[in-house]
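---------- Forwarded message ----------

FYI, see the Major facilitator superfamily (MFS) profile domain-containing protein record below. Original note from H. follows.
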Amino acid sequence: MDRVNMSIAIMPMSAEYGWNPQTVGLIQSSFFWGYLLTQIAGGIWADKVGGKTVLGFGVIWWSVATALTPVAAKLGLPFLLVVRAFMGIGEGVAMPAMNNILSKWVPVSERSRSLALVYSGMYLGSVTGLTFSPFLIHKFGWPSVFYSFGSLGTVWFVTWAAKAYSTPLEDPGISAEEKKLIISQITSGEPVTTIPWGVILSKPPVWALIACHFCHNWGTFILLTWMPTYYNQVLKFNLTESSLFCVLPWLTMAISANVGGWIADTLVSRGTSVTTVRKGVLLGLSNTAGVLAGVFGTAATGYILQHGLP
């Protein structure tokens, strides 16, 4: 929610402060300056001190940065860029910390659906932010978006600090039998004291994953940051209409992630190797994307030839 609200609030903000599209793009990108810095560091830190601590720190960090956004914007562009980068630093540890916690709690046979459920929470957070941001802007002004969502993060942190645990062994609320059962189903090798970065980076599959993730995030974050502006400025939708159209991809992703996770776990539980399942899912997704390009691309071409561009 905290990340996506800027894509809506940036429109009244740019109107108030006279920012051109280049400046808007700079502001939107500043989040990722910090986000890039803490991806690997967040995973290493989670291994050392526990995912609960790292995720809690990240949430309270980015919530404070979110709440400070209106103040930073009034002080000037450099202050806003720094605050947005600080927000990215906090959010950068979230994914590594979540994966660390799931690896300690969830058996291999259930990880696909568990990861899908957790990740769908991020997509539903985008849906929530896109849905409620226009309402808050119309009623209370754009600063209220950042104050509201920043406050929600601090409330969440209180509950998280009291109820969450990095591993089953730390949780006093489950019995010894339950702890034994969970730990017995978690496959884990010997602790790694030194990460073999040279060996990891020498493997072609690693670079294939990096390239795939780069391309995926390029499209995802372009849509996340610019789609509301496109609907508003090019198609002339108001903020509410723009946000309603913008939630559709994230709502679809939340649903499809859980369906895909359930299918993957079912195949693994029936004896299919994790590698085979992963390759099958990726092949199905890539082929589907290729087919959709043909379906919509040819139809769009015919429309443009007849009616021209909007």
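H. also flagged this: The radius of gyration is 22 Å.
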